[in-house]
Amino acid sequence: MNTPSIRSILPKSLPSLMVLIFGILVIVALPTTSKFISYRYLFSWSMYNGAWVHEKYTLNYTDQDTSRTLSRSEVIEKYNVNLLPYGIKPLKLFCDNDRLLKSVERDGRFSVKYYCVLNASDSK
Amino acid sequence: MKIAKHLDVIFKVLITLEGFKLTELFVVFFVKRNEAIFPVTIAFFSIFLIIKNLKRIGLLSVLISNYFLIFKYSIVSQHFAFLTCLLTIFAVRYLLNRFYSKREEIDRIVASLLICQVSVLYFFAALWKINFDYFSGMQMLEHLRSFLIFPNEEQPSFVYLLMLSAGGIAIELLLASQLLLKGKILEFVQSVGFIFHLLLIFMIGEDLRTSFQIFIFSCAAIAIYPLFNRNNWNETNYIVFWDSSCSFCSKSVNIFKKLDLTQNFNYVSNTEVFNYPKVPFQHNLIDETIVVWDPDSNRFWIKSKAVMFILTGSYLFWFLKPALRIPYVYRFTDKLYDQVAQKRSCNI
Question: How many CA atoms lie within 13 A of B283 on its CB side?
Fold first, then answer.
């Protein structure tokens, strides 16, 4: 069977083509204009639960007396733990730590907090 | 145009997935006593309107409820938004059907938009991964750690991780460009895509609920794949000849007809074969085996290859198409076919 060309499967009439072009523009434009739609929820399965979003992470932890916020670079520098901008499991490293981590919060418009509870580091 | 049949089937698949998703949300919100259970309930019952052929109002109600759940209640799971997006494109179909008489044109628009949506999804998935963090392989490691596939399970070498990370990106870029492919390459890429999604369900899904959500996402994406095959856009003339005196054959053909959701094949019994004088094989061949004939290319397939051709030509088993091209396998499967054929029961 001869495979039809891409052109032959497209709509033939001008109004139909215009509707199609408008639809494609909406679909393609959303990832570049709408952070809500594109970055996290729609166009990438890999961003599931906020994974792989290039945002600054801050680590809030409570020591016995003090509460501090650490940036990602500080965490790497001080504790030699690479808190990646994705994934949830690395946080377990902190939750299991004696340093009494309270939460890790992504510093973004749609931030998600990860609370450390016993045997579960990824609860939302 | 055959694409209309494909769109009908895809819509049924997506609505079924929506039903599964809403059931999950209903259970979760019921247990948590969350007020979001109300839009979920409305959406759930709207599905019954769609089933009762009130597609326009049913779909509108489902979509309003879905968007309400997304924006008001922050049900922001990616798979749910993706499913909602695909259903929104179908809403365009039922909306335009009301105002525009050229249904073929509408179906072309809708099918093209669905293709665009899935391609954009894969493209952006690949695009956002092209960064140092992903190529470091740590993300892959998180997914693979429990599968013991490396010589050193705890710390596989960077080369392994790099290859896997790059491989994942390459697959997504290929899947994004499916529309540009055709023939053997497209069949192979689509099969790889099927396996890719299967692996996602098992590797990323850390618990039953996550696996279920990725399952919904994977099914929604894979449901669109047959549209990428441009051969599926036109009517086919494949004819399946079968032996009507054999009850086993009759039962088999009934199963094939049920599986053939997009009606790719015309089924003709051996009593009617005389209406087709130009077939490139002896008529009595049909007494021995099922035969698939393509009048356009004048090619025909028999025995296990014919069975495989029918199955892979259906909407449900397209991902097995590369199996048709595996050499030597059919020598063995044909022997198996012959053994089954000898034991079949006949009415005569």
Answer: 11
What pLDDT is stored for residue B12 in this prediction?
94
Q: How far is the CA of B1 from the CAs of A110, B106, B108, B311, in angstroms?
A: 45, 11, 9, 21
Structure tokens at A10: 């497209």
Q: Which ipTM score applies to this complex?
A: 0.80
Chain A residues lying within 8 Å of B179, measured CB to CB: 6
Q: Are A61 and A102 in contact (CB under 8 A)?
A: yes
Within 8 A of A84 by CB-CB distance, chain B residues are: 133, 138-139
Q: What is the rounded average pLDDT of the residues B117-124?
A: 87
Round to whole Å and give the CA distance between B234 and B206. 42
Q: Identify each DSSP E strand in chain B by its residue range.
A: 238-242, 265-269, 291-294, 299-302
Q: Do A84 and B109 touch (CB under 8 A)?
A: no
Looking at the complex, report in whole angstroms how far the Cα of residue B297 sits from the nearest Cα belonging to chain A.
7
Distance CA B293, CA B94 (A): 36
Contact B238, B300 (CB under 8 A): no
On whether the CB atoms of residues A81 and A90 are closer than 8 A, the answer is yes
